[in-house]
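Issue 218. Parser rejects a valid record. Input:
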Amino acid sequence: SSSVKKGSLLNFSYSASSIMQIAEQKIAEAKTVYDKVVTKSNPTFDNVVAPMAMLANERFSELSVISFLGYEFFIDTITREDLYKSVNVVYQNKAEMDRLCDEDKRLLNRLISNFQDNGLGLDKEARESMKQMKKRLSEISVQFQKNVNDDTGRVLFTREELLGLPETFFEDRETETVDGVEKLVVTTKYPDIIPVMQYAKLENTRYRIWLINKTRCPENIKLLQEAVELRRKCAKLLGYKNHAEFKLKDKMAKTPEAVLEFEHDLLDKLQSLADKEMEELETLKKADKEAAGEVYDCFNDWDFSYYDNAIKQNKHSIDMEELKQYFSLNSVLAGILGTYENMLGLRFVRVENAPVWHPDVQMYEVWNAEDNTFAGHFYLDLHPRDNKYSHAAAWTLRRRCIMPDGSFEYPVSALVTNFPKPTSSAPSLLTHNDVVTLMHELGHVFHNICAKAKWSRFSGTAVERDFVEAPSQMLENWAWDPSVLQKFAVHYKTGEPISKELTNKLVAAKNVNSGMNNLRQIFFGLYDMQIYSTDEDLDINKLYNDMLEKISRRKIGDKDTVWPVATFAHIISGYDAGYYGYLWAEVFSADMFETRFAKEGLDNKQTGKDYRNEILLPGGSRDAALSLERFLGRKPQSDAFLKSIGLTN
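Output the parser choked on:
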């Protein structure tokens, strides 16, 4: 489109050989900059730190598109002693530090911290050992995720075995004939496995697909075990008790003790709620077993989604399948984008014939509504395909930051999801869960696009890891608001808007099993803290299975024959000693929503503007605690969070 800003486009047409070539070229260019800054006889922020940070600003988008290649070079850079010495001279120079603005000071502090985290300040032998361990960790992380993406489990079922599934599930489904019997192919990808777990009446059907899903990627257990050991060794070399202590020093929580106190406190508070929920779930399963003339043994992990769904249907008369008819992807997307335009003062324009990496992908420009200036763009890649990333996530492809000539680089994000494809008889229909996911992940996209930091390393979602989810979690509230839903939820056949009655039922069912669901989140968080804060050699699979049964109250059959931990990719890359951050951030998201938007109005433009300016705009250029205080007018509190999950005294 002619209106795409020159220079704001990214190139996705890399071949394998050109990627290597570009990576090598960028690495050589960067090396030139680094070799130059270390020769300065009088190191200052302007002649040492700024050129390094400016290089990061310029390189971010190119290296994020070909990101995995950039990583090894990053390890080499951050372990260069001559660079550390030059930066340290600036850091130790009080007069130089005093004249810097807050964001520049923050940059310098972080840079020193990064060097030290990577072994600078240790003796040569320890440093070299550290560097090798970091490189190996990088390889492990890439391999682990690749295994998860590539290993799609599949099960063949007869039509009878899929009793309870809606008609739409069978449309255009692949079949195979086995011994003269036609079988349907069901994979472990989201659009297949989720409906089976929710609707399949036969426990054995749910169990079979669950089992295939929980026995994927056996090779990942060794990789995770190795990563845990390497991280422990690295932390010890740096003088920390363990990896958790090392990781938490730069987070809002600061210490493992604070995290454990938070998790255990919530765990205690949830027990009586979970007792009631468990009783209700078990009653339903017992009745089913009795009706079938079978003996009730226990409540299993593969039972939860089915009976959770049954409660929503029986108690709140919500038929998830009926609900889907109102959530066709195109109308939901238009509605959610409209909500964001209104709240953040933006305008989106879809680009026709855009340069993209796959025909399914759409590209949008973002403009500021107030002064009609260009703000960046984003891509939507919404449907599953082979070897594609298998969850939902927003990827930052370029961050807004200053360029050497004083201009600004425009931010770019990509949203990758796995929503069902349209079938021959219906458009892509979303569950309400999918609608919440879309709202959430687009929150990350606009966190990146509304950022205004000087340096790329503080731009957008580059905030503390235990805060990063809060802005998106807060925005999920819009997907639960009847007035918002009524704007875009229309029946795909009749065009009828969703009724008030149906939206009210949906909201009433919001906290169904919130005790059980939150116990599961606590389990993930506590398991993650446990493996990264102990000195013992753990059997990481046995520990996972034992803790899962104990904390989240679901049995998993023969514990020696399943390894669900092998697809828990969060704790191998990014959320290691950080999974607690999802729940931790919920405290802030609930507080922001309750204190401002719920009181002032969901479409209050001034509240939206404050949110954009105080929460999204600063990114990581200041502490998240300060951004929260500015937006809330006080320090954050946890009452709104407890209320939001149904825990009120």
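Fixed in the parser; the record now loads. DSSP finds 25 helices and ten strands in the chain.
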